[in-house]
Amino acid sequence: MSNYDQNLATSDAIAMDGGLRGYMLRIYNYMAAGVGLTAVVAWLTYQLTGPALLQSPLMWVFILAPLALVFFLSARINTLSAATARLLFFIYAALVGVSLSILLHIYTSASITRVFFIAAAMFGALSVFGYTTRRDLSGLGTFLFMGLIGVIIASLVNLFLQSSGLDWLISIVGVGVFAGLTAYDTQRIKAMYDSGDDETSAGRKSVISALSLYLNFINLFMMLLRLAGSRR
Protein backbone atom coordinates (compact mmCIF):
# COMPACT_ATOMS: atom_id res chain seq x y z
CA MET A 1 0.00 0.00 0.00
CA SER A 2 2.85 2.39 0.83
CA ASN A 3 4.40 1.67 -2.59
CA TYR A 4 1.08 2.51 -4.22
CA ASP A 5 0.86 5.81 -2.33
CA GLN A 6 4.45 6.63 -3.21
CA ASN A 7 3.88 5.88 -6.90
CA LEU A 8 0.70 7.97 -6.86
CA ALA A 9 2.53 10.91 -5.28
CA THR A 10 5.31 10.60 -7.85
CA SER A 11 2.80 10.58 -10.71
CA ASP A 12 1.06 13.66 -9.29
CA ALA A 13 4.41 15.46 -8.96
CA ILE A 14 5.35 14.63 -12.55
CA ALA A 15 1.95 15.80 -13.80
CA MET A 16 2.22 19.07 -11.84
CA ASP A 17 5.76 19.66 -13.09
CA GLY A 18 4.61 19.12 -16.68
CA GLY A 19 1.64 21.43 -16.16
CA LEU A 20 3.88 24.11 -14.65
CA ARG A 21 6.29 23.93 -17.59
CA GLY A 22 3.40 24.32 -20.04
CA TYR A 23 2.00 27.24 -18.04
CA MET A 24 5.36 29.05 -17.91
CA LEU A 25 6.03 28.34 -21.60
CA ARG A 26 2.72 29.92 -22.57
CA ILE A 27 3.58 33.02 -20.51
CA TYR A 28 7.02 33.37 -22.08
CA ASN A 29 5.53 32.85 -25.55
CA TYR A 30 3.00 35.66 -24.97
CA MET A 31 5.71 37.91 -23.55
CA ALA A 32 8.12 37.22 -26.44
CA ALA A 33 5.34 37.76 -29.00
CA GLY A 34 4.49 41.07 -27.32
CA VAL A 35 8.13 42.22 -27.42
CA GLY A 36 8.41 41.16 -31.07
CA LEU A 37 5.21 43.02 -31.97
CA THR A 38 6.49 46.14 -30.20
CA ALA A 39 9.77 46.01 -32.12
CA VAL A 40 8.05 45.54 -35.50
CA VAL A 41 5.52 48.33 -34.90
CA ALA A 42 8.29 50.68 -33.68
CA TRP A 43 10.34 50.04 -36.83
CA LEU A 44 7.33 50.41 -39.17
CA THR A 45 6.26 53.63 -37.45
CA TYR A 46 9.78 55.01 -37.80
CA GLN A 47 9.96 54.04 -41.48
CA LEU A 48 6.47 55.23 -42.47
CA THR A 49 6.09 58.45 -40.49
CA GLY A 50 9.64 59.69 -40.00
CA PRO A 51 9.95 62.66 -37.61
CA ALA A 52 6.45 63.90 -38.51
CA LEU A 53 4.71 61.82 -35.83
CA LEU A 54 7.37 62.76 -33.28
CA GLN A 55 6.57 66.44 -33.78
CA SER A 56 2.80 65.93 -33.81
CA PRO A 57 0.52 66.31 -30.75
CA LEU A 58 -0.85 62.90 -31.75
CA MET A 59 2.32 61.40 -30.28
CA TRP A 60 0.98 62.16 -26.81
CA VAL A 61 -2.01 59.96 -27.56
CA PHE A 62 0.29 57.02 -28.30
CA ILE A 63 2.33 57.76 -25.18
CA LEU A 64 -0.65 58.01 -22.80
CA ALA A 65 -2.95 55.38 -24.37
CA PRO A 66 -0.75 52.40 -23.34
CA LEU A 67 -0.73 53.67 -19.75
CA ALA A 68 -4.53 53.84 -19.67
CA LEU A 69 -4.82 50.41 -21.28
CA VAL A 70 -2.45 48.71 -18.86
CA PHE A 71 -4.41 50.09 -15.89
CA PHE A 72 -7.66 48.92 -17.46
CA LEU A 73 -6.28 45.45 -18.16
CA SER A 74 -4.88 45.07 -14.65
CA ALA A 75 -8.11 46.24 -13.02
CA ARG A 76 -10.48 44.17 -15.17
CA ILE A 77 -8.45 41.00 -15.70
CA ASN A 78 -10.78 38.91 -13.51
CA THR A 79 -13.85 39.87 -15.53
CA LEU A 80 -12.41 39.53 -19.03
CA SER A 81 -12.36 36.38 -21.10
CA ALA A 82 -8.91 34.94 -21.73
CA ALA A 83 -9.20 35.77 -25.45
CA THR A 84 -10.15 39.40 -24.76
CA ALA A 85 -7.34 39.81 -22.24
CA ARG A 86 -4.87 38.38 -24.74
CA LEU A 87 -6.14 40.74 -27.48
CA LEU A 88 -5.80 43.76 -25.18
CA PHE A 89 -2.27 42.71 -24.27
CA PHE A 90 -1.24 42.65 -27.93
CA ILE A 91 -2.98 45.98 -28.61
CA TYR A 92 -1.02 47.39 -25.69
CA ALA A 93 2.25 46.00 -27.08
CA ALA A 94 1.50 47.57 -30.47
CA LEU A 95 0.75 50.98 -28.91
CA VAL A 96 4.00 50.80 -26.96
CA GLY A 97 5.74 50.11 -30.27
CA VAL A 98 4.37 53.35 -31.72
CA SER A 99 5.54 55.36 -28.70
CA LEU A 100 8.97 53.68 -28.66
CA SER A 101 9.57 54.59 -32.30
CA ILE A 102 10.92 57.84 -30.84
CA LEU A 103 14.00 55.89 -29.71
CA LEU A 104 14.97 55.28 -33.34
CA HIS A 105 15.21 59.04 -33.82
CA ILE A 106 17.42 59.45 -30.74
CA TYR A 107 19.74 56.42 -30.75
CA THR A 108 21.61 54.67 -33.55
CA SER A 109 20.16 51.41 -34.83
CA ALA A 110 23.40 49.58 -33.99
CA SER A 111 23.33 50.64 -30.35
CA ILE A 112 19.62 49.81 -30.01
CA THR A 113 20.29 46.32 -31.36
CA ARG A 114 23.30 45.86 -29.09
CA VAL A 115 21.45 46.99 -25.97
CA PHE A 116 18.43 44.87 -26.89
CA PHE A 117 20.53 41.70 -26.85
CA ILE A 118 22.21 42.74 -23.60
CA ALA A 119 18.79 43.31 -22.04
CA ALA A 120 17.53 39.97 -23.39
CA ALA A 121 20.53 38.12 -21.91
CA MET A 122 20.10 39.85 -18.54
CA PHE A 123 16.37 39.21 -18.52
CA GLY A 124 16.84 35.53 -19.38
CA ALA A 125 19.45 34.97 -16.68
CA LEU A 126 17.42 36.78 -14.01
CA SER A 127 14.21 34.96 -14.94
CA VAL A 128 15.97 31.59 -14.78
CA PHE A 129 17.33 32.58 -11.36
CA GLY A 130 13.85 33.54 -10.15
CA TYR A 131 12.42 30.27 -11.44
CA THR A 132 15.08 27.96 -10.01
CA THR A 133 16.18 29.59 -6.76
CA ARG A 134 14.96 28.15 -3.48
CA ARG A 135 15.44 31.47 -1.75
CA ASP A 136 12.18 33.25 -0.97
CA LEU A 137 12.23 36.55 -2.86
CA SER A 138 8.88 37.80 -1.54
CA GLY A 139 10.65 40.03 0.98
CA LEU A 140 12.06 42.06 -1.91
CA GLY A 141 8.60 43.04 -3.15
CA THR A 142 8.09 46.09 -0.91
CA PHE A 143 11.66 47.29 -1.41
CA LEU A 144 11.42 46.97 -5.21
CA PHE A 145 8.03 48.71 -5.28
CA MET A 146 9.44 51.63 -3.29
CA GLY A 147 12.38 51.78 -5.70
CA LEU A 148 9.97 51.81 -8.66
CA ILE A 149 7.99 54.71 -7.17
CA GLY A 150 11.25 56.55 -6.56
CA VAL A 151 12.33 56.06 -10.18
CA ILE A 152 8.96 57.34 -11.46
CA ILE A 153 9.00 60.43 -9.22
CA ALA A 154 12.63 61.24 -10.02
CA SER A 155 11.94 60.85 -13.76
CA LEU A 156 9.01 63.28 -13.55
CA VAL A 157 11.14 65.80 -11.63
CA ASN A 158 13.94 65.48 -14.17
CA LEU A 159 11.55 66.41 -16.98
CA PHE A 160 11.83 69.94 -15.58
CA LEU A 161 15.41 69.86 -14.29
CA GLN A 162 16.94 68.21 -17.38
CA SER A 163 19.90 67.09 -15.27
CA SER A 164 22.24 64.63 -17.01
CA GLY A 165 23.63 63.55 -13.64
CA LEU A 166 20.19 62.78 -12.25
CA ASP A 167 19.26 60.99 -15.48
CA TRP A 168 22.34 58.77 -15.10
CA LEU A 169 21.46 58.00 -11.47
CA ILE A 170 17.83 57.21 -12.39
CA SER A 171 19.04 54.81 -15.08
CA ILE A 172 21.43 53.01 -12.71
CA VAL A 173 18.74 52.61 -10.05
CA GLY A 174 16.19 51.66 -12.72
CA VAL A 175 18.36 48.82 -14.01
CA GLY A 176 18.64 47.48 -10.45
CA VAL A 177 14.90 47.80 -9.81
CA PHE A 178 13.77 46.10 -13.02
CA ALA A 179 16.46 43.41 -12.72
CA GLY A 180 15.15 42.63 -9.24
CA LEU A 181 11.54 42.72 -10.41
CA THR A 182 12.32 40.22 -13.19
CA ALA A 183 13.54 37.62 -10.69
CA TYR A 184 10.84 38.48 -8.14
CA ASP A 185 7.96 38.37 -10.63
CA THR A 186 9.18 35.10 -12.14
CA GLN A 187 9.10 33.44 -8.73
CA ARG A 188 5.72 35.02 -7.95
CA ILE A 189 4.27 33.86 -11.28
CA LYS A 190 5.57 30.34 -10.68
CA ALA A 191 3.87 30.32 -7.26
CA MET A 192 0.59 31.43 -8.86
CA TYR A 193 0.33 28.19 -10.84
CA ASP A 194 -2.57 25.99 -9.76
CA SER A 195 -3.14 22.69 -11.51
CA GLY A 196 -6.82 22.97 -10.58
CA ASP A 197 -7.39 26.15 -12.60
CA ASP A 198 -9.82 25.92 -15.48
CA GLU A 199 -8.81 27.15 -18.95
CA THR A 200 -10.27 30.63 -18.40
CA SER A 201 -8.47 31.21 -15.10
CA ALA A 202 -5.20 29.81 -16.45
CA GLY A 203 -5.56 31.98 -19.56
CA ARG A 204 -6.11 35.14 -17.52
CA LYS A 205 -3.13 34.35 -15.30
CA SER A 206 -0.97 33.74 -18.36
CA VAL A 207 -1.85 37.12 -19.87
CA ILE A 208 -1.39 39.21 -16.71
CA SER A 209 1.85 37.36 -15.96
CA ALA A 210 3.13 37.94 -19.49
CA LEU A 211 2.29 41.62 -19.07
CA SER A 212 4.37 41.82 -15.88
CA LEU A 213 7.39 40.22 -17.53
CA TYR A 214 6.92 42.32 -20.68
CA LEU A 215 6.94 45.54 -18.65
CA ASN A 216 10.06 44.44 -16.79
CA PHE A 217 11.88 43.68 -20.04
CA ILE A 218 10.85 46.89 -21.83
CA ASN A 219 11.83 49.06 -18.87
CA LEU A 220 15.10 47.20 -18.34
CA PHE A 221 15.90 47.72 -22.03
CA MET A 222 15.08 51.43 -21.87
CA MET A 223 17.19 52.00 -18.74
CA LEU A 224 20.14 50.21 -20.30
CA LEU A 225 19.69 52.18 -23.51
CA ARG A 226 19.90 55.44 -21.58
CA LEU A 227 23.18 54.24 -20.09
CA ALA A 228 24.85 52.55 -23.06
CA GLY A 229 23.02 53.79 -26.15
CA SER A 230 24.84 55.87 -28.75
CA ARG A 231 22.93 59.01 -29.68
CA ARG A 232 22.57 60.16 -33.26
Structure, described:
It is a multi-pass membrane protein. Keywords: Membrane, Transmembrane, Transmembrane helix. By secondary structure, the protein is mainly α. It has one domain (2-228). Helices cover 86% and strands 0% of the residues. The protein contains 9 helices and no strands. It has helices spanning 2-49, 51-54, 58-76, 82-100, 103-106, 109-132, 140-161, 164-192, 199-228. The longest helix is centred in the N-terminal third of the chain and has 48 residues, at 2-49. Mean pLDDT is 89; it is low at 7-15.
What layout of secondary structure does this protein have?
Elements (H helix, E strand, L loop, with lengths): L1 H48 L1 H4 L3 H19 L5 H19 L2 H4 L2 H24 L7 H22 L2 H29 L6 H30 L4
Helix pairs in contact: 1-4, 1-9, 3-4, 4-9, 6-8, 6-9, 7-8, 8-9
Please work out how many helical segments DSSP would assign.
9
| Helical residues, percent | over 70%
Low-pLDDT stretches: 7-15
Number of strands: 0
Write down the secondary-structure element order. HHHHHHHHH
Quote the beta fraction: under 5%
Average of the residue pLDDT scores: 89
Core attributes:
single chain; about 230 residues; mainly alpha; 9 helices; transmembrane; Bax inhibitor-1/YccA family protein
Brief account:
It is a multi-pass membrane protein. By secondary structure, this protein is mostly helical.
